[in-house]
Write a structure and sequence with these properties.
With 348 residues, the protein is α/β, with parallel strands linked by helices. It has helices spanning 17-26, 62-68, 84-89, 91-100, 102-111, 145-158, 187-198, 215-227, 248-263, 285-291, 299-312, 329-335; strands spanning 6-10, 30-35, 52-56, 72-77, 116-122, 166-172, 174-176, 201-204, 209-214, 237-241, 244-247, 269-272.
């Protein structure tokens, strides 16, 4: 891919996209973002960049998709209703965003001359696994609609793969760390937010294993997938992306120690029962072997940078970061119109 290629990032002003887009711009790409702006736009500092273009639009709007794909050589598809609780908040709308419009998006990309399609899947497609390390050969056993549609999206994508249309699905672990469009409803982030805002941590369950990936590592991986000359053996495949497999209790203890040292306070940990039985440990050897990719950031780095932002006053206009809809997808969906807003409803 040449550095003057147009990269379309759907959902690009969100939690991951607002860290990814600056990396793509720094790498010399022209970046176009299509985003419905259901959340705060994390890319406002970049709106005047000469190689950046922002389109406010919904991925369910076919004309908007077709227009956004004009001249695009690579798509990074991030747009989705993210995580199980958010999906369950409005299953019909969630399905329309996460799967119903996907066939048209991918086919339109291919027919418009796009050469590479990078799909944000999820490691949660594995469901529950007792395997010591879950690699890409393990079967997908999704236990929620969010997981199931992520897996179905992979199948749709790979069915359109050929020599002129490279595809790859990134099965990301639970993401952590700071972003201009911050989310505090992810495991590491919410435990950190609880310690900061309440000076205590509540753990639901605790024995479940969660693979984690720092947001900067994930954005570095997406950038590498955009930049490489060919996807090679990864083409038409799903790849795991996660470096830090820990129980939720282990994560809570790490957060406790960091916040206590950083702020000089005592942070008790309270545990309660949970019906969330998802538990798996991720093996990401394939992406490291095939691309030479290295994970360089840790859960500790994620906790520290959120602490630093909190201390600096970055969250200063929030009365309670644990309930502020700006930082929690479910709360945002509950107080916003997630239908089609001003977009005329069209069949996907």
């Amino acid at each position: 891919m040449t550095d003057q290629s147009i990269v379309l990032v759907t959902g690009g002003s969100g939690y991951i996209g607002s860290r990814l887009v600056p990396k793509l711009l720094a790498a010399g790409y022209r970046v176009r973002v299509l985003d419905a702006e259901y959340f705060i736009n994390g890319l406002m500092p970049w709106v005047t960049h000469p190689r950046f273009e922002f389109i406010k639009g919904d991925i369910r709007d076919r004309p908007a998709i077709d227009a956004a794909l004009s001249g695009v050589t690579t798509v990074v598809h991030l747009a989705a209703v993210a995580n199980d609780p958010s999906f369950a908040c409005d299953p019909e709308v969630s399905r329309s965003i996460n799967i119903d419009c996907l066939p048209h998006l991918i086919r339109s990309a291919k027919h418009s001359g796009c050469k590479r399609f990078i799909y944000a899947s999820s490691a949660s497609v594995y469901g529950i696994s007792d395997e010591p390390n879950v690699n890409e050969h393990q079967p997908c056993v999704p236990i929620t609609d969010y997981n199931r549609y992520k897996a179905e999206g992979e199948s749709i994508l790979f069915g359109l793969t050929d020599a002129s249309f490279e595809t790859v699905a990134v099965r990301a672990a639970t993401v952590c760390g700071w972003s201009p469009r911050q989310r505090l409803d992810l495991t590491v982030n919410i435990l950190t937010a609880s310690a900061l805002a309440r000076q205590e941590i509540t753990v639901f369950g605790g024995a479940q294993y969660r693979p984690n990936i720092h947001i900067d590592d994930l954005c570095r991986l997406y950038t590498m997938l955009v930049r490489c000359d060919s996807l090679g053996q990864l083409c038409g495949c799903a790849v795991n992306a996660g470096a830090d497999n820990r129980t939720i209790c282990d994560i809570a203890v790490e957060v406790k120690h960091i916040v206590e040292c950083y702020f000089g306070v005592c942070i008790p940990i309270r545990t309660t029962a949970s019906d969330d039985v998802r538990s798996y440990r991720l093996d990401s050897a394939l992406v490291q072997r095939a691309l030479g990719f290295k994970f360089v950031y840790t859960v500790r780095d994620a906790v520290l940078e959120i602490c630093e932002r909190y201390q600096s006053g970055w969250f200063g206009d929030s009365t309670d970061i644990l309930t502020d809809p700006r930082y929690h997808n479910v709360r945002n969906m509950q107080c916003s119109d997630w239908s089609f807003s001003s977009v005329e409803r069209r069949s996907c």
